Structure formats: structure tokens, C-alpha cells
Amino acid sequence: MVHGPPTAETRSHVSVVLVALMALVAGLISMVLVGGARSASEDSGLIAFTGEDGVYVVGVDGTGLHPLWQGKRTPTEVTWSPDGRRLAFGISARSGTRGGGIWVLNADGSNPVRVAGVPAGSLTWSPDGRRIAFTSKRYGDNPDIWVMNADGSNIRLLKRTPRLWERNVDWKPTGGWVAFSSAGYVSFVYVMRTNGRNLRNLTSERGWLYSTDPDWSPDGRRIVFASDRSGSMQIWVMNASGKQRVRLTRNRVPSGSPVWSPEGRRIAFVRTDVRNEDSTIYVMNADGTGVVELTEGRSPAWQPVAAP
Description:
Elements: H1 8-34, E1 46-51, E2 54-59, E3 66-70, E4 78-80, E5 86-91, E6 101-106, E7 113-116, E8 123-125, E9 131-136, E10 144-149, E11 156-159, E12 167-171, E13 177-181, E14 189-193, E15 200-201, E16 211-216, E17 222-227, E18 234-239, E19 246-247, E20 255-260, E21 266-273, E22 278-285, E23 292-296, E24 298-302
């Protein structure tokens, strides 16, 4: 049978079919990349946190709460490795007691190892997962920022700062800088290069005299932090230079310890009832909307990736 050239009507029909197929393929690709209507990265992973007797994890939807490590002393803080497969946490030393130091364990709670006997307040992994920065009182009463290999070796001082009381250290995800806050009657948010140079105060203006708990966004462009600028501790966000500050929470209960989700779309934080000192972890969108209660706990840390 001999076929003639396609008619205009046939060509139009083929074009419609091709456009529909292309739209279908694009939709399927979109579903694979972002998980359809909901982001897969938003709905997976875990949030680790500290309780009175150990380290716990819970799903970002509030399910699956269980302990990873329990002991006689309360961990100071917990932090995930960049690949989401390990956690590190600190135990402060007490006079006449043993067991203080830095511990590392797997994401399922297995193989807990005390990698360093140095008491640590705040901890953070380097972006390549090879080092851990932490705050510790190794010189006198004031803590400084120290860095060590992830196995506890090669501990060295990042910068000696006798006039500061470092805490809440956080390594910039894109590398090169750490953010931290000072402590005392006033508290500021600082950034500093990981070679100990270029120390800068980001919140030195009047009215921002108590700012703390900085956490870098995944792209390193913003810092979320807590401040009493409004009269009570609330969550704020600013760009990495300290400008364009925006208040995210508005609640009578003090809020602090904010941390970004891996994709930068949400933030976990803690509200503390000053009457009974009960602390509860919440999750909200990065613009401060959609606040959801998660569980009781302190010092949340969002798993960078959902490790298999």
C-alpha cells in the first residue's frame, strides 16, 4: 500500500501527542527529583536531640522516637556527620568524676566510641567529615574553639580568645568559616575563618546585646539565630554578613537552638517554659509559618541526608 504525504490534520495530531508525552516525561522527572507534591528531603531523615539521660532521634513527622545512647550524665549537644551516618556528642566533666569527653556512634546507635577525653560543650563536623570542631575549657575558665580529627587525634586550638566565652559553634556547610556565640551578661554572634583569622561580630549593635545559637543555612548564605531583640528570646534569620535580619517566631515562650533542614526549607527549634524549664522541639517553615510541635527535648540536630 502506498501512503501519501501527511495531511495538516495528521501533523497537528502528532504534535499534540508529542507535547503530551513531553509533559508526562517532565512530570515524571519532577516527581523523581522533588518527590511529587512534597519534597522527599522534607519528609525523610531524622532529628537527633539530647534528653536528660541520653541522645535520642525522632522522625521529622514526630514518629519513631527512640534512644540511641543513654548514660548517667546529660549530653551537652549532638551533631550529625555530613553524610548522615554518624553522630558526635559531648559530655562535660565534673570535678572528681570520669567519663567526660567526645563520643561518636553510628546513626542506628551502634558502636559508641569515646574518641577524646576532652570535655566538650558544643560540637560541629567539618563539611568533609574529617574533623570536628568543639568548645572546651582547656585554658582557665573560658572555653575556646578547638579542632580535632574525627577519630579524636590531632587536637589543636583554633584561636585563643580570653575575652570571649565561646559556645554554639557551627561549621559553615560550604567550608572556610565557623559561626559561634559568646556567653555572659551579653552575647553576640561571631564568624571566624577556620584558620582562626578574620574574627567578626555580626550582632554588635545596641538592641542586639543578647544573640546566640547561630546555625548556617545549607548554602552558607544565611544564619538563623536566637535573640531577645524583641523583649524575649525569639528566632531570627540574617544573611551571612549580619544584615537583613528578619524575625521568624512570635511567642511568649522563649525560643532558641534553631537548626536548618538539609534543603533549607524548614527550621527546627526549641521552646523552653521558664516556669518549669521544660523544653519542647518544634519544626516550622523557613519563613516562620507552619509551626508544628515535635517532641520534648533539647539541642536538635537535623540529619543531613537520609542514610540507607
